[in-house]
Each structure stands twice: as structure tokens, then as C-alpha cells.
Amino acid sequence: MKNKIYSCFIFFISGFMCFAQMNAEELLLKALAAHGGDRYKEVKSITYQKRINHFDASGALLDTVIENHTIDFVNSTSQFSWRLRGDDFTAKQNKDSVTLQINGVHTRDTATILKMEKSLKAATYVFWQPFKLIDPSAILESKGITTLFNGWEVHVLEVQYPNSDDRWYFYFDIKSFLLKATGVFFKKRYSLIVNDLHEKNTELNLNAKRTSYFTNIAFVPRRINTQYQYEIISLSK
């Protein structure tokens, strides 16, 4: 009986040490496995609709914008279109250029095009997670385990990029290793985006519903900011 208890104790301690000593690379590998492993490499293109609800400081709905996105991984292009205040917009990013059409007419405004370029990159970055974290320029650091404001226990992976003051914190479930939330320090403001729901059709456990909050430095929400709903329209392999 003593031997059995001793063996169980050793097993528990060994498991705890492995759990506690998980480094950034190990954590990312487990997260990738939870999101389908290498299946993401089979995807040639994906089209999805993104419904965005904006809220004011009191939590009242301000407006809703529906965007239609396509990411072409083979040709390294992306685009999205949306309608706002009666105007139709289409932004496209190719390997060497970004274009923006408003009601079918190309705009040449440099500042607007630069803004669209950032929006296109940001849309792909947040949607195609955790696969975007494989980027060799990403500086990864495991920050242990924490409990989010809603009680979820999560592994914390801090991510930074060269020549950027932005800091990202990716929170993965301690058991399933699914991406549960993302914290970001951007333009001197802290925000937390919670993954309320994952889709099940692609085998990649992509975002299906997310809620963004303005938070304090500890990523405790001050108020709701935006809510996102995603619908996968098509996926090509």
C-alpha cells in the first residue's frame, strides 16, 4: 500500500513539474494540436462572414457592420468588403499592393490605403489563430497559469514583435489547450477579447463568437466594446 501511495506521489510530482515547466514552444505545440494540428496547412483559401456589433459606454448597441472576408493562402492575398452608411467598400491586399474601392471607384488617398492595409493584416491575424504564432519573428514567452475574470483557468503565452510596442497575451485552456481569449496592449490601451464559442465544421476550432472589452492593466473588463460573430462560408483544400 505504501509503495502504491509513493508511486502515485512520484507520478503526481513528475506530472506537476512537467506541467509547471512548460515553455513557450511546448505550449504553442499543444495549442496547435488542439486546433487541428497540421490540418491548417491543407487550407488553400477560406471565405467567412464577420458580423460586428459596436457598443457605447453604457453597453447599448450603436451599430452593426457585416464584412465578407476571403483569405487566399496559396497566392498570399486577402480581401474584405462591407457596406457603411449607404456606401460599398472593398479592400484587397496582394503581395505588393493594397487597393480600396468605394462604390466601385479606386481611391488614391495614401492615408486611407495605409489604414486599410493595417485592417487587412489585423483581420487575418486575429482570425487565423493560433497558426499565426508560428511566425519566426514572433517573440514568445510562457507566463504560467492565471485565472481570467470569468473564472477560466488558462495558460498564458506573451507575444511581442520587433519594432513594436504592442504586447499580446494568448490564453489557452489548461486542459483542452484551445484558445480561450486574447489580451492586447495597443496604443496605450488594454483590451481583452474572449472566445465565447468555437466553430466545429473545419476541424480547426476557429472563432465563431468573440466579445471584446476595454480593461484595466490586469485585463479585468471595464466595459464591453465590440462583439464579433463569424460564419464560415467556404473552405478550399
Q: Can you characterise this structure?
A:
By secondary structure, the protein is of the alpha+beta class. The chain has one domain (23-236): Lipoprotein localisation LolA/LolB/LppX (outer membrane lipoprotein receptor (LolB), chain A). Helices cover 20% and strands 47% of the residues. It has helices spanning 2-20, 24-34, 110-127; strands at residues 45-55, 61-72, 77-84, 87-93, 98-102, 105-106, 139-147, 153-160, 167-173, 179-186, 189-198, 207-215, 221-236. It starts with a helix and ends with a strand. 22% of the residues are buried. The model is unreliable at 1-19 (pLDDT under 50).
Q: What's the CATH C level?
A: Mainly Beta
Structural class: alpha+beta
For this structure, the CATH topology is: outer membrane lipoprotein receptor (LolB), chain A
The CATH homologous superfamily name equals: Lipoprotein localisation LolA/LolB/LppX
Largest sheet: 13 strands, antiparallel
The count of helical stretches stands at 3
Give the N-to-C terminal Cα separation.
Answer: 55 Å
Overall form: globular
Order of helices and strands: HHEEEEEEHEEEEEEE
Total domains: 1
- Strand proportion, as a percent range, falls in over 45%
Largest sheet strand order: 6-5-4-3-2-1-13-12-11-10-9-8-7
Q: Cα-atom Rg, whole angstroms?
A: 20 Å
Could you tell me the number of beta strands?
A: 13
